Each structure stands twice: as C-alpha cells, then as structure tokens.
Amino acid sequence: NAGVTQTxxxxxxxxxxxxxxxxxxxxxxxxxxxxxxDPGMGLRLIYxxxxxxxxxxxxxxxxxxxSRLNKREFSLRLESAAPSQTSVYFCASRAExxxxxxxxxxxxxxxLTVL
Amino acid sequence: xxxxxxxQPEMSVQEAETVTLSCTYDTSESDYYLFWYKQPxxxxxxxxxxxxxxxxxxxxxxxxxxxxxxxxxSFSLKISDSQLGDAAxxxxxxxxxxxxxxxxxGTSLTVIP
Lengths: 115, 113
Fold this sequence. Notes:
The structure holds two protein chains of two kinds. Chain A is mainly β.
C-alpha cells in the first residue's frame, strides 16, 4: 500500500518547455487534488477531481491542465512553463466523507524549477 | 470565499515546554471538520489532528491537542512536552462541502534544545 505517489520528485525546465506531473493513489479514493506551495502562501489549489471523468478549477488554474485518467491517476500538465510556475507541487487524495472524516492524503511533492 | 488565517508566521519553543499555534477560519457550513497538518523538512504532509465541528469536546492525540472555539471560529493547536522532532511547518485546514480544502499560510515552529 504505497498511498499517494508522485513522479518526478525534482524537475528543471526551461521557459516554454512542457511537462506532465504524474500522480497515482492506491486507496480507492474518488477525490484527487493538485496544489502548489510557495513560500509564505501555504497550499493553493490548482485543480481537483471529485470523481473519475470530472475536473474542476481551483484557486490558481491558469497555465495548467489536468487529466483524470482513471480512478487511480490524476496528472497535471504545464503546456508552456513560465518562471512563475517554479514551486513545489503536491498531489492529494481524499476518502469519502462518510468513512474517513474528510482527511486528505498527500504525495511526497515535486520540486519544479523553471529557468 | 472560505478563508483560513494563521497569524504567526514563526514560533519557537524550548524543548519540553508547551506551545500554542493559532488558527482562525471563516465558513458558512454548519457541520465541518478542521485539521492540523505538519510538514517537516522532508516536505511530506502529515495529519496531526482533526476536529469535528459538532463535537463539543476538544480533540487530543498524545501530546497534541486543540482548543476549538466554534463561536469565535478559532482552532488552535497545543503541543505539550515539545520535542526536537516537532520542528516543522504547521498548516491549519478547513474543507467545504464543495470538496475543496482551504489551507492557512503556515506557522514555522522551531524547537530550541
């Protein structure tokens, strides 16, 4: 039982390059999330998916796209990376309300630097 | 919009002493949960404690306890007998019924030997 896994752990991009951050969970959770963490700003929600086949924008969606490939996997894509997207990215999943008190489980994070 | 405020960017505590981290929130929900997460230097987010709003009793997990004041919308975390391993960023979080979580900006806790 690995929980929430993310790849890669570190990435350096040049401005304008694209990349996809991968996330998978093995807890059979319906809800999955992508956050970015910047110094002094806490965690800000980029996109989330309440169930397979659905995605919704969070607080800071501009410059990102997501895909909920199946129940396990939720990817985040940067089509044309910008220095402002330098951040630490976290994926999270969440159990159903009735069973686990709404706790979110987090992946280990990806540190992305855009030069 | 739902908000969570942590007004202490940094706190320090002597080893074995007690420290309290503050959090206030704003929500229109009638039933909700509140959470404290810990983020050590490893970056991994770890759940410390949770509180269900309709429960009057404050939650406790070993050395960690909360002071939940529903009317004041205050949810502070008390760490007793502080240990070096408690040094971390601490985030307060509140979800809404729309499935979104709102996080505070965090408090960096230093434990002084």
